[in-house]
Amino acid sequence: MMSKLDSILDMLPQKPPFRMVDRILSYHPGKQVEAGFLTSSFFQQPIPSVPITILMEGLAQTGVLYTQLETEPLSEKEFPLLGSIHVHFYEEVEWGEPVHFIIRPERLDSKRAVLNGTIAKGNGLEVASGMLSVAVAQMEGSFVGPPESRESGGCRESYRLVDGKKAEMLLPYHKPWQMIDRYQYRLNAGGITTSKLITASDYYLQGHFPAYSIFPGMLLQEGIHQSLQLLDRVEGRSSFASVRITEVNTRFLLPVEPGEAVLYQLRKETNDAETTVVGQGSISTGLAIKTRVKVRRKEDGGL
Prior knowledge:
Oligomer: single chain
CATH topology of the largest domain: Thiol Ester Dehydrase, Chain A
Radius of gyration: 19 Å
Structural class: mainly beta
Number of domains: 2
Largest sheet: 13 strands, antiparallel
CATH superfamily of the largest domain: Hotdog Thioesterase
Strand order of the largest sheet: 1-2-4-5-6-3-10-13-12-11-9-8-7
Number of strands: 13
CATH architecture of the largest domain: Roll
Distance between the termini: 49 Å
């Protein structure tokens, strides 16, 4: 039985170093699949908790597996696309802790799925829950995003940020987990603009995907989070480790290929209880990502 479960992993198109699922714990056809991941196997960063984008990616990869198990395996010319994800976070995960990803169907057909997901620690404590959608795209085909992706009409301005300030010294991460190159701070506007140049030699593209490079959508999300960290730092706030993300609601609108530069734009909406960060990432052809992220400062509940 275990050999059959282990063979399910062969269906996952994401390969190391961008594979966030390392074992299948159970599969109940038509009901759910549960996968596991040992966080110590990932490139550990000098922060106390695992970035939530790693957890979200593990959930998405489990969703890709479940969709194939319930429909049909991806062909050699197909790859999965994450359409949207909306997750509430309740607990943090420390490095070295095992996590479980549980996927259950909401709506499912051969090329698209809407799924319910849960993230839990190895001891069963629930870390997060939410909903995600995945779809299948053709390699080397023309991808037309939804009308929302064309709101900006594309953004060549991302290349102009080469004159912005270098972000590397302000980010609390080691390479290769640095997803921002440059930034510009808008004084008194509660926002920041950042950029990331995508190249074919980007470390994580080795596994996403080996035969056809697409910059992972969850790394676009991480770019939003790191842009928020930069905003926190340039405004003179304390370490970002004192802030906890409680909710992420994101739509992925266009795939991002090597050669693009992503321009992130963020602004904050603050009330007494929490702060909502509204962000987007644009490439030359339009909007690639739109997101709303809710955060709380740990010591006082606000930001």
